[in-house]
Amino acid sequence: MRPSKRTETSSLEELRKATTSCLRYGNHFVETENLTKYHSLVYALCCDSDRPRAEELYKWLRKTLLEYVKEIFQELTNSESYIAFKTSRKHRKENYSGKQLTENYTNSQEVSNSSSTSFELETDNFVQLKKYTVLWESFCAGLQAATFIFSYLERSWITERKKGGILETRGVYDIYTLGVLTWKDHLFRYLRDWIIRNTLSYIFYLRQKKLDVLVVQTVVRSLLSMGCVEAIAQEEDSEEEDLALSIYRTKFEKAFLDETSRYYHKLGTDLKASYSEREFLQQVEICLNEEQHLSEQFCHPSSIALLRNRCEDALIVKHLDVFYSLSDMYLRDSQEEELKLVYRLLSRVPGALKPVQDSLKSILIDWGCRSLSPFKERTESNMMPTSPLLSGKQEIGEENKEQLSSLEKSMMEYDAYAEREAESFVNAAWSIYIHSRKLVEAAFMNDEGFVLALEQGCNKFFNSVSCAPHLLARFCHKMLERPEGDSDFTEEERENRLVKVTRLFRLLEEKDLFQRLYSVKLARRLIYGTSASTDAEEAMLARLRETCGQDYVSQLQRMFTDCQTSREEVISFRSSPYGGIPLGFEFSVMVLTAGSWPIDPSTSKNSCKEYSMSYSDIHSLPRMFSKAVEAFSEYYSEKYEGRRLMWLHSLSKVDLRANLWSHKPNSKSWCELQVSLPQALVLLKYNERITNTFSELREATGLETEEVKLSLKILIGCGVLRVSPNDYELIVDSSKSNGMDDIVVSLNDEFSPRKRKMKLANLLEPEINKENSDVESSRRKMEEDRRLQIQACLVRIMKRYRRANLSFLIGETISLLSHRFKAAVSDIKQNLESLIEKDYIVKVDDATETFEYVA
């Protein structure tokens, strides 16, 4: 049965009231039973068998929504807030854009900020803005209720129209989209300047914690919702996200960002004028954090980064001079907490930390150079002080028994000075490095740029000391050498020293020079058995290997291998028929591989020799020694065919047991003297008689005059032998070699040894001469090795690239050799010319300095 016209009219009126009620008050004002009843009415109208009313119902609904939105529009435009806004626009006769609006708003705020009633003047605007948000939220909730009421219309007629194509669906939307579009086109379109202006004003006081953020959140949600439905209406699927944010970005975001920039530019200036520099930094951080927290509550995520950049530009970039002056002061005073604050703020701005990193590097270089300035005056030839006794210019006292203590005291003073010199240098460099390292870790969060600045600064001041490789090698030697007495390091102390050495070694540019010096000192420790611990030696090698690779320590590793092999060889020799020959003393040998040790057997003087010997033939030795040498040589030749032994007698040590002073009171019954082979040959002559002339000693030992003088100088200086004061002056004077044959050298029966074991071999010559010889020899060999390494590196580069220009070759060569030394540009060019002369490389273009490899 068809419903009457009157019934139909009443049904539509009932639907209108329900829809309007939902739109104004939200869906919670309509009971569920009524919603079901209204849904049934819509169903009945759409399914009328005589005349379906779906299309008419949709048009009626669109009209109803429009009437309600216009009603809201009139309600808002009749408010005093909007009337005042409109009057102001007419009075100025300007067509405000969003930017103009916010500029004028800011100017008015600058005036009203000084007034205590500025907030009250905006109260009506905020009331109307809040009313707008309440109406919007109710409208959206009502649309949801209307969607349920008209759900059949949406599922049937609207869906069918959408299937019909673009012409059929033009102007036809789902209920929610239709409502939001109506709001946008007939309300927001005309009130947007007023809404945005009030919203920006609201945010201004929101930053001062005077208002609730919920209002702004609702305004932003409304802009995003209108943008979304507009994107749906235009059916721009490929750019849906950008289109959905178009209203938010064009109507709110740009004006909001501009207003924020002006607000914080002024605030930054005010803070700088009102607070001290340190307090200014604290206030900047507080403002940035508060703005970040506030913006995250209402801004779209895409706006957060833009807003942060605007705030940082206003509060940080504009005041970088303050940040840099403070950072320089904080770095010099090592104020950790203040530097943390500077880092947190400047790390927000790309590139802003670079001047601070440069400042850190320059301060480190200045501090380091000042701290290490005493060591810069040292050269490789005057690193140690000289003593009269060590130089052979000491005077002989009346009592020879005081000579031993004087010589020992001089050597102890030297050892203590040498140790203090190296210790002071390492500790000074380490204190700067570790202090700066802790500062970088704590204040700059181990930032990569600051770590690099730290390494560059420390590298610069550490390598400004030309003798740094020498001092570091000496420090390692003292650390790894077995000390006299019970003053050895604990494992923890040695580990801490290893850490120091490793860190400072990484800063060293002349790693190849350090390697040579270290190998010389390692050879001494291994040959003379003075290493404190094999584990410590291996730990040091492991750290060097970790830093520079296996090639760097391969030679050092072979030295340890030789020591182990030598011990096994001696055991094998003693168990062989050759080792059963009665010698009358214990005989031990070390077999060293030529090329693995820093020893040049072709010369009588080398970096490991404390003494030069003229014995080139083992048969020139005394029979008691030559017999042992011959036996081992025959054993070795039989076991290893084709190998040749070259005996280095200058490195030999002899332990002699002396019983000459056992009759003296308070003296040891016997004394063991550790002497060199030349010293042993001299002392053994006194088994025949206690008085010998210089010529008799020279003929009996077969030594050169200078070698006899050196042995006598030490033995007389220690009080084992004695001569007249005038004769001693001739012996210690290296410039005099004539008139010495008749000097009488007697065994000193007044000598009273105070220790069971005396090491006279260590007093052969002043240690400074050995140190200087090591450095000079190592540097000469190093320069030759560097020349060969640079040439080899250039050849490898050219073989790989075939053609390259000069700048590329220089950069690649420096990079490839950086783990061993810092190649100088002049050296690279010089060696490049050498390769051209040798026809390895040819220059193909003078203008571009291009070179080509010749196969």
Automatic annotation (TrEMBL):
InterPro entries: Cullin (IPR045093), Cullin-like_AB (IPR059120), Cullin_homology (IPR016158), Cullin_homology_sf (IPR036317), Cullin_N (IPR001373), Cullin_neddylation_domain (IPR019559), Cullin_repeat-like_dom_sf (IPR016159), WH-like_DNA-bd_sf (IPR036388). One of its GO terms (biological process) is ubiquitin-dependent protein catabolic process. Residues 467-716 form the Cullin family profile domain. GO terms for molecular function: ubiquitin protein ligase binding. SMART domains: CULLIN, Cullin_Nedd8. It holds the Pfam family Cullin_AB. Transmembrane segments: none annotated. PROSITE patterns: CULLIN_2. It comes from the Eukaryota. Coiled coil: none annotated. Belongs to the cullin family. This is Cullin family profile domain-containing protein.
